[in-house]
Amino acid sequence: MSTDLKPLDAPTPRVQGSSVRMGDRVFTNLTRLAGIFVLVLMAAIGAFLVWKAIPAFRDNTGNFFTTQEWFPDASPPFFGIAALAFGTAISSVVAMVIAVPVAIGTALFIGFYASRRIATSLGFIIDVLAAVPSIIYGLWGLQVLMLHMDGITKWLNDYLGFIPLFRNEIGIYTKSIFIASVVLAIMILPTISALSREVFLQVPRSHREASLALGATRWEMIRMAVIPFGRPGVISATMLGLGRALGETIAVALILSAAFEINWHITEPSGNTFAANIALKWNEAGPIGLSALIASGLILFIITLVVNMIARAIIAKHKEFSGANG
Amino acid sequence: MKIARSTKVAAFAAAGALALVGCSSDSGSSSESPAAGGGQIGGADCATGTIKASGSSAQKNAMTEWINAYQTACEGATIEYSPSGSSAGRADFINNQVAFAGSDSAMEGDELKQAAARCNAAPPINIPMVGGAIALTYNLEGVDNLVLTPEVSAKIFNNEITSWNDPAIAAANPEVTLPDAPIAQFHRSDGSGTTDNFTQWLKAAAPDAWPYEPGSDWAAKGGQGAKGSDGVASSVKSTPNSIGYVELSFVETQGLKAASVDNGGGAVAPSAETATAGLASAKVTPNADAGKGDLTMEIDYTVQDPSAYPVLLLTYEIACESGNAADTLDLTKSFLTYTASSEGQGILSGIGYVPLPSELNTQVSTSVSSLS
């Protein structure tokens, strides 16, 4: 990470004489301190989670990774994160599948098709969407969206039911992972869309004008000049959205049925996620229960870390594009 | 709702102010020193100061009403109750962060030993204070007086009975036409004392049909989870052919239907009266590890009295029997004396709770008066 920062240091201020100005030295140290502080903070959070999770790992009589039950306060404690990991992953993936195309489409429309006035107001509305608290999305999902989703989930079951994912064997379509995913998709859409829009706006005018001058249509210009340039930015926007989807708590806790089972039929009432489970179980958890919840939080922490590292790696790999703006 | 409630509190407080001598409830220019003896509420001398308490969210509404009434009658008293959950409340009590804790289950075992450290080495006591009934609420068009037995309830909540016209349900409801519809079963997705007490009833009254250990986390497979009693209540309300379990107050405030329960002695509808009758069969089983005045209760979930509702909830206050901190003792004792008084218990049935049976109430008052 520190190597990334190097180029910024490079143009040392040109001063008369040999000494560096006092202000520069102070500022350099302040920024360095801020950087170190963030690292220390992360390490402290990690250490706290590990420390608090130890009793749960020690006393668990189930397999922490494969057990699909959650009875940490029973004697003996018996619990595992299999259902949580599955629910977190599948709800986030389905949310991404829904949100990413829409978000990129919106960003392209705002950037290249809409008139200036529409672009401004649409951009504003998307920013407002990002500011809506998640409890509002949760309540809306529970009390409005869920009551109107029967049509689409039944259609999925009737026509795509041969795919296990969409099959519904109980005939009840509420409180499902699919509904939670739709709400998650709406929640992460503004994040992805706003960042993608910014990235697309960074495409050098010269690139766009060159492709148009060569006779490209607008769609061809977007395909050949804008998207290749914006790809790493869009990927990192997507990863940020994924991070939010993985960690979203209260909206998911309200919607999901919170069952401890791996159920591939995503339109059936089922599913649970790391964050939702912590929110639901925290209040009445005993000592081992709290420790077990923190242990599951540790896993979520690691997953989020890995996702972000992958995003960073992708961006670093495509570094040649960023900076072409100069 | 909120307006109605605060009006009720105001009316109650006003009545209290009129009935009791020397109450300086809303004289803004009181020149008295804010010492004890400034007023009375429910036979308790007002105390002043600030205490914190935390714990059971099932007690939340009762505590809100009690605290409002107490603070209105007793100037200079501030009581804060944070409904953070029973386990969190007990942990706060052990860590000496609160003067007393509310809990859906009595403190026992190691927790009592840990808590003794903050009570000057004397173990604390469990004081039952707020009773409740758990209603089996259902949404079934055309059916207004559903009767369920423990076996049928256990099988419905364990997904063994999945259709409303199952012969087992029909047998308990001979005069009712039940629809040929799948049962949408709702339970709590969050950890909850309500789930704990509900499953204790299922386990005690229908041991063959309910294979799971009672606990605050829902153990059975199938059905749908909803967050909080309000979540279960609104899910049942918006889902035809559904059933769930909630505290009685939610049935009343949300306009839901509640099934009568037949434990073997005849069908009993849930109400404050039938639940108080049910609580009367609960036995005091003092915990030898707790203080002398401990009133840990054992509810008889198998009671077969045709006037006693069996699906019950009893929540406790946990306090130091002796060794209370000097700055919290007076207010803790005075407040709990009020909540255990006939006036304190009297407001419970109006807000969906169940007053303690009179015999137990006397024991509770005695235990509270021994706090030191």
Secondary structure blueprint with pairings:
The complex is a heterodimer of chains A (326) and B (372).
Chain A: H1 2-9, H2 22-59, E1 70-71, E2 78-79, H3 82-113, H4 116-131, H5 134-143, H6 150-160, H7 177-201, H8 205-213, H9 218-247, H10 250-255, H11 274-281, H12 287-317
Antiparallel strand pairs in A: 1-2
Helix pairs in contact in A: 2-12, 3-4, 3-7, 3-9, 4-7, 5-7, 7-9, 8-9, 9-12, 11-12
Chain B: H1 2-19, E1 40-41, E2 44-45, E3 49-55, H2 60-73, E4 77-82, H3 86-94, E5 100-103, H4 110-116, E6 124-139, E7 147-148, H5 150-157, H6 167-172, E8 184-188, H7 193-205, E9 224-226, H8 228-238, E10 242-247, H9 248-254, E11 257-258, E12 260-262, E13 267-268, H10 272-279, E14 283-284, E15 297-298, E16 312-320, H11 326-340, H12 342-346, H13 358-369
Parallel strand pairs in B: 3-4, 3-5, 7-12, 8-9, 8-10
Antiparallel strand pairs in B: 1-2, 5-16, 6-10, 6-11, 6-16, 12-13, 14-15
Helix pairs in contact in B: 1-2, 3-4, 5-7, 11-13
Features:
heterodimer, A: 326 residues, mainly alpha, MetI-like fold, two-stranded antiparallel sheet, 12 helices, 69% helix, flat, disordered C terminus, B: 372 residues, alpha/beta, 9-stranded mixed beta sheet, 3-stranded mixed beta sheet, 13 helices, 16 strands, 36% helix, 20% strand, elongated, disordered N terminus
* Helix content range of chain A: 55-70%
What is the global morphology of chain A?
Answer: flat
- Whole-Å distance between the termini of chain B? 39 Å
Overall strand count of chain A = 2
Overall outline of chain B: elongated
Task: Report the CATH topology name of chain A.
Answer: MetI-like fold
Largest sheet data of chain B: 9 strands, mixed
The low-confidence runs of chain A, each spanning 5 or more residues with pLDDT under 50, are: 1-6, 322-326
Tally of helical segments of chain B: 13
Helix-strand category of chain A? mainly alpha
Question: How many β-strand runs of chain B?
Answer: 16
Number of helices of chain A: 12
Estimate what percentage of residues of chain B fall within beta strands. 15-25%
At the first level of CATH, the class of chain A is: Mainly Alpha
Summarize model confidence as the mean pLDDT of chain A: 87
Gyration radius of chain A (Cα, Å) is: 24 Å
Instruction: Return the average pLDDT of chain B rounded to an integer.
Output: 86
Helix-strand string of chain A: HHEEHHHHHHHHHH
